[in-house]
Amino acid sequence: MAVGPGGREAPKTPASHIVHASSVRWLERGLLIRGRSGTGKSELVVRLLEAGARLVADDLVVLEAGPRGLRARPPVPGGLLEMRGAGIFNVAAGGPTPLHLVVELRRRAGDARLPEFARTTICGVELPQVTVDPFLASAVARLRLILHATRIA
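Above: the chain's sequence. Below: its structure in token form.
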């Protein structure tokens, strides 16, 4: 326990670390988009921005665990998006946001007809996780359904 001024317990700071990922706030939900370099993170982010999302962070995301869950924020002032082969652009920033879903990117992600419910733990916080092929024409529509419909099987 850390002791602050006056002998009182110092306030606890949230556990945090930086990950290679992107994050957006979309449909009042925070998404953490993960995948190896070249798997389509920026491609999916651009499509989500077109669908009304706000960029939280691109390429590097600071994750902070706190009493209300996991939050994402940019490591530097937000709003910068790198598009491979096009450059770096200043876009509308969404600011720090609570995370609700982890999106793992993988080509041909939908091979399993009925995949099991997946969850992942980051900074001690458990979140639902889905795997999406960002190059599918239906990738954004699939994420919208995952965020707002109830999965029954």
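The chain has one domain: 14-148.
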